[in-house]
Amino acid sequence: MPELPEVETVRRGLAPALVGTRLVSVDQRRPDLRFPFPENFVQRLTGRRVDALSRRAKYLLADLDDAQVLVMHLGMSGSFRIEDETPPGNFHYLKAKNAAHDHVAFGLSTGKRIIYNDPRRFGFMQIIARAELSAHPLFRNVGLEPLGNEFDGAALARLFAGKAAPLKAALLDQTLIAGLGNIYVCEALHRAGLSPRRAAGSLVRKNGSPTDHADLLAKVIREVLEEAVEAGGSSLRDHRQTNGALGYFQHCFRVYDREGAPCPREGCGGVIKRIVQSGRSSFFCGTCQK
DNA sequence: CTGTGTTCCTGTTCGC
DNA sequence: TGCGAACAGGAACACA
């Protein structure tokens, strides 16, 4: 499911069950997801206590009691669910929807189990020493947190200065801003009244300061992400929170997956269009997004 | 260095 | 109803 709001929703769902408990068993059911699991994955995790669960960009970070960090990325289709007790390995369980894509099961000292499911297997897990995290290739080039204190129009201007790439591509670039994905980029650009095709550098003045559009864009990015986190993320298809509940931000989409619908902006009268930019769908209103 | 296209994988939806 | 094509929340990688 995972853009920043969905990953944050997962973090909030997992933390109460996971933090403070020990991993008494780790059931790794295949050698790889997008990448191979790290060497001795099961042995390195079994017996460890989880001291904290945080998020950086679209990564979940479980701090372990041996100064290592279990890094988890959900890819396109990854999800976690919590089960209160070990289900019997019987016919009914095995026939359960999607059980074929349950790739990892963490048994906790509380008796609960946390199961990672990922049909497309674009997700991955890694174990990294905490001290090496920020220098690690996965994180060395990760961009600004859009909900962080430093994120504003001036920061956007610094990131976008001189960029000819379209706003859509620049906002999806995780080395610039970390956590936005296709949905929330589309939504933020509509709220800001900016075309996804517009050059990112056009939001920067010659002296490097932000235009009013840059200030507005930074503001609506923060807004749309905060609203989505508040709503428990977006549930497309059958994606669910860790407790099985559906997020409901998808009902708040103004443009994403709404090709042909009237533009929701008051008095605009335009129609939502779909175009493809660098292989991904962009939904926007050609009338009010310039 | 910058920007764009391809690729990994499975499941769902849509048009015929 | 069946069947192939298009498409899906990400991002590493190859290449111009």
What general form does the structure show?
A: globular
Corresponding CATH superfamily of the largest domain? MutM-like, N-terminal
Helix content: 10-25%
Q: H/E order of the elements?
A: HEHEEEEHEEEHHHHHEE
Taking all residues together, what is the mean pLDDT?
93
Report the CATH architecture of the largest domain: Alpha-Beta Barrel
For the largest beta sheet, what order do the strands appear in spatially? 1-6-7-5
Strands, total number: 10
Q: Which class best fits the helix and strand makeup?
A: alpha+beta
Radius of gyration: 20 Å
Could you say how many structural domains there are in total? 2
Terminal-residue CA separation: 29 Å
Could you say what the CATH topology of the largest domain is called? Answer: N-terminal domain of MutM-like DNA repair proteins
Question: What about the largest sheet?
Answer: 4 strands, antiparallel
Name of the level-1 CATH class of the largest domain: Alpha Beta
β-sheet strand percentage? 15-25%
Structural features, described:
The chain is of the alpha+beta class. It contains eight helices and ten strands. The strands form three sheets. Strands 1-6-7-5 form a four-stranded antiparallel β-sheet. Strands 2-3-4-8 form a four-stranded antiparallel β-sheet, with helices on one face. Strands 9-10 form a two-stranded antiparallel ribbon. The relative contact order is 0.14. The model has no long low-confidence stretch (mean pLDDT 93). It has two domains: 4-140, N-terminal domain of MutM-like DNA repair proteins (Alpha-Beta Barrel), CATH 3.20.190.10; 153-285, Helicase, Ruva Protein, domain 3, CATH 1.10.8. The structure holds a DNA duplex (16 and 16 nucleotides).
